[in-house]
Amino acid sequence: MSRALETAPGGTAAIDLLAHDETLSAARTGEDGLALRADLGERARAPGDALPALQELRRRARAAGHATGELDLRIRAIAGEGPKEVPTVDELERQLLSNPADDTAAEALAGRYAALADPTRRAEALAGLLSRAAGLSPDRQRTLYATVGESAEASGDLARAEQAYWRAAQIEAEPALRANHLCSHARMLLARGEVATAVSELESALEAAPQHAGALALLADISFRTQNWAAARELYDALEATAEAPDVIPRAELVHRRAILAHRAGDTHTSEALFRELAILNPTHADARRALAELARARGELATAAQRLEEVLRLLPAGAIAELADVRQRLGTIYAEECEWELARSTLELVLAHDPSRAQAIEILIDAYEQLGLSAAAAEACGRLSRVIDEPSRRAAALYRQAEILRTRLDDANGALDAYLRSSDLDPGFLPARLRLVDHFWRAGDLDVVADLAGDLRSVPFSPEGSADLVVRLGIAGAPTRADRTARSPFASAPALGPAAARALADAAGRDQELLARGIGALDPMLTRARAWAGSGEAALMRALADLALEHPTEPGPALALGRFAELVGRRALAGAAYGLHAFMVADGVGARQLAGLVPPGLVRPEAVRVGGPVDHPDFAGPARRALARLAPALLGFETERAAPKPTEGSGLPPARAGELRRIGDLLGAPPFVVAPDAIETDTADDRRRLRVILTQPAGLLVATGAGAVSEHAWSFIAARALETLRSGLWMAGLAGAEGLARLLEGARAVLSETPIDEPRARAVADWLSKPEVALFLGPPEERVETLAAVEAALAALPDWNALTRAAQHTRNRIGLIGCADPSAALGMLKAEDRNAGSVGDSPDARREFLRRAASGDLLRFMFSPTYEAAFS
Asked: For FRET with 642, which of 64, 272, 424, 685 sits at 20 to 30 Å CA-CA?
């Protein structure tokens, strides 16, 4: 019934399935009902009722092998086959014509006409009789109208059947019987497409008999087909509660309908119970298992859902190609949700082998390919997806995904660019492809194309905070080539643009091998526009580049972009620092080439490197630093039995390097020193001992034989660090901790303040400083007063020893960098001295590891700081 209504709601097929109570044929009535019907018909002299019932009883008796003699006599008596003579039909018609109220003639004719085998003749004859016989009782008329309806319906005359059932329903009868006739009438109305009238008749039937199974079934079916889900569920539930439900609708169909409606209402518990019952009632019911699979999936039981769908596949016939493909696609989707990628791949490939146009299957298959590492297959599937869908935005998204796979997984830059371009052409409004094109042409330095893309994207409201990288690229590409330093800085209102601009410039400069071939000048057009775009924020942009270089010291882009930017604006010290960082990583790269031709930053300003000056590390620039530096010349030779080396020719240094050593010593104001060959450290295997300080009076700088192998700038770095060690005074008197520092300062205070001291260690220092030849190095009285003030300040705030020595080491490196003015050489010497396990050797990996360590961190921060730039005049 429901399937007929699916194909033609309210049509003949739906109505033919519904016949109830009196409208049922004798073949469908039980034996007790047939016997009752025959008895009542005989008593009422209604052969139309009695004869079919007796004939059906005789047929059943013969089929069961029982005697039929009594039934035969009753049938002959009613049909006029007995020995008595009965009138013919014509005689009965003449009798009725002469007296239309003759109920005997009318009943006899009714019996004769009801026995006609041809339903068309039977309907016509009974209809004519009803129009002529005025003597028939209302009950008899109702019965005959019902018979006319059945006969006309059987012959396909729906108009006559509808009219007959309507007349039967209009005759007063008990509620159940009237509901039968109303249902029959409703069926005919539905067959003729009069749904609203049919619904009204069925509602009247339910008013007469609220539990009438036929009316409930038909009205529920109409509600279901018209998608009145709530009413349909209520009616089917009421039908389930009736005892006659199995007579009007198959159990499996009723359970199926109730399961569907419960699921639509969100009652998953009832729905699942009903679908389970349906699967038991009909083990081959594929829809039940499909529904159970979806319910299991909704609960997160993916394995159970997959099992149910596998059962569906076994139940479906081999010829159901489309349905098999649907189930396999759903199964493949669940496999993907389970991360069973190989099963998903094989299942979906089978789906697409039968129907290559299934876009959703292709999309999930792409995910499976990517998860399995089959990048080439994933890219090909993306191209296939773009060809089977029509919507431009979805096609563009498929090509964009193909391009991303080609770019990131297959290193196919040309193929990726082609896919990005085709994606952008298909849907100019698809932003991801446009943004990738901006990135590509930005890195290629094709600012004109980026400017064109900026014009296309002008109407898109990009946020400076959320899309800072894109805003910067588009802004710089569209900027003029002449800078206006008074223009408002874009960073004032959107600080996020500063780091984004630095990233953009670094991205463009990141292909250092291309720059090596094309020259660093290839960056100039972009940097010129960047300066114009930054306006008065140029310094902020350079600071952002410096911060980026510190954050990613091993990457070429930030250093090269900063180096060229600083070179163009004349900040030579900063340019040298940036180029030097890249040169440290790539000895023969573009940074080293630029560094070789870069104009030196200028002369070192003496006040920058004075003791306690801006170059000192903050943890070292305190009173202790000043006090030790003032005491350093006087403490040379303290507790040292070794004699000072004598100056000789052949100190191990060429004249130029000896002159450089004296220049740096004068610049730093170092104590007197003598340069001599290092007779002990002749083994060059330890490159940390190229220049050794001995604390004699005067001090000795012992040059190892390996010192001649380093470059001029590396030598300047070594010399400046050694002389800073000498002038700092930190390693005088065998200092090895905070306690020793305190005793040394107490001894110096005793001498400078001319007060006694009893502590043995402090007394030894005081005795040494009291010697006339040593006291000369304490200076005149006014200098002694300043030294005493520094000593007392240091004693009042003794520093943490570990922090002090660590800061002193950083200060030595800073002084060494300023002394050589070559960050690449400075980093190289620090790397040579580093003995950390991860950075041993001189490979690129070892250098990268060195730059990530704290040992180089302070020097990197210093060389990109304003203090380093300010150290040069």
From this structure: 685
